[in-house]
Structure prediction request, 679 residues.
Amino acid sequence: MPRKPSNLLYGVDESPGWIALVLMGFQHISLMAIAFIFPVIIIEAIGGNLEEAEGLIRMAMLATGVGTILQAVNRGPVGSGYLCPLLNGPAFLSASLMAGKMGGLSLIFGMTAVAGCFEAFFSRLLSRMRAVFPAEVTGTIVTMVGIEVVPLAIRKFLGIDRMHTVPDGTAILVAVITLGAMACFNVWGRGKLRLYSVLLGMIVGYAASAAAGLLSCETFQVMMDAPFFALPAVGHYGLSFEWVLLAPFLVAALSSALKTMGDVTTCQKINDVQWKRPDMVNISGGVLACGISNILSGMLGALGQSVSSSNIGLSIATGATSRRIAYSTGIILILLAFFPKFASIFVIMPTPIMGASLIFAVSFMILAGLQIIMSRMIDARKTFVIGISIIFGLSIEFAPELYRNVHPWIKPVFSSSLSLATICAVVLNLIFRIGIAKKTSLVLNPGENPSETIDHFMEEQGRAWGARSEVIYKAKAAMSEFYEAVVENTLTRKPVAMTVRFDEFNLDVDMAYEGKPIELSAARPDARDLLTDPDAPLRLAGYMIRSLADQASIESAAGQSCVRLHFNH
Amino acid sequence: MKVWSKRQKDIVILAVQGRLDAATSPFFEEQVLPMIAAGDKNFLLDLANLDYISSAALRRLLFFAKQAEDRGGRVALLSVQSPILEILDMAGFTQLFAIFTDQEEAIRSF
Prediction:
């Protein structure tokens, strides 16, 4: 049973009031609005008009609204049960551009639906792939999910958009004011001020934008001209299919699925103070929700969807992760698709406000990934898995020209730092798993300094296994305690053989020796006993061994004794 | 294992680094027992850098505290890290020793 961390105002199962749900829904949509740029990019690339772009944005609202609700469902096989909003993110951008140029919108939608089917199928395999995604891999993915958004966030922060190709001083000032306001509300604000820190920061940002002249009358004219009510043109363009585009769309679907994995892992971690490892069944439900949402996107006539990392960053920052916020966000999005006048409010958001909001949310996201990585012991193998993956992932941001000529089929892999880092991490993890023994032994001879030998042995194994340091510490303490007790109390004068076995859930230690069995006492001797009773030290040692382990037992036959310790991992 | 000592008023502050077990406890006793013999009776053990403590060492710690108490003084603990604190708690020693996180507060408590 997950335990809610104390920094959350509203945990995943809790419900804020109705007003709070609506306000937080708008807060999330404000951040998601940044992604409305992608439909515009697609329409521009295929030579469409403003009306088509507006229609595609409204379909995006409809499809991602349904997707966000599906993702939050916590019963049955579909959905992760978390506040994990979906949007038309960059994962499908490259493949959609290819499809759009080749066969127009109908081909984009047809291929998106096919990609959704693949993603749904892939989700069914995930629960058997735990070994492929250990903490260092998922942590790297989550970190890269945040890092991937950095170039976009910085460009927006500096005021760079389609109209402005160089940094703009006024825009930067507005962005600094917006980010400063968000940070102030979040750090020094209490209760509601922290909860709505992004929304309040955006209001400050809009005021600053108006004062700085970034919101002109023409901007508001777009809103005025939009109709109050209009039915979305569902399935207006139809569906078509092209074999040659199958590979890029499948890679895009895989990227989306891996991104969902990282994001759902983050959601699991931020909602459970006792989080230890990714829950693959839950992740599988999240990826299935994403797959179904993409099938739906294709059928309705919207672009491919993936989980929004920025919104998860927002939920960490505001301390509100209630799944009901996902429902309210989804419902508001669906309604906006029918009310273009209101929808246009989000389309006219000034660039620096988008940048400030992204930087604010991404800060939390990157830290969540680093925390997952550092939850385990790290050795040279894991250092390479994490380091090489991040380096190659970042190379796409630092030197994108290096990957310009890769084959179009695999272009989605090289189109984002997240995709490349994820694939590197998964492959390197599989390679570096070679040669790691799951069972290993140590023989301690009388007269040796056992304490340091056990310490070095378990530290080295713990790092190779990627075990949690606190579990290894307990095992080391129990093993040292045991050896010291049997030797000091002359229960044996022969070597002691220690065998340690590890898998992701269990750490087992067997300690066999020739001699009398040690008593694993259930009662702790008190201070007076320790000062006066000569048997009390051995009883304390037995009690400590038993208490350090989650399960302890002893077997003895024909002069041979064996203490078996089990530690939950 | 290493032990550093310094004095503040009539209190001896002992910083212990490394592992305290059956093998290293005699060294620890070699450092502290002469101090008791010389008349020191109030001790503050700074355990910030202690990596491990075994039950055998805990027992020696108890003897050390008993000797200090017999002379009208006491032993308190400072900056105990969470794994060590867990062991002390398991052994029931958190009820026997005053544990502080702030050195000035610990000094004032004597």
In short: The radius of gyration of chain A is 28 Å.
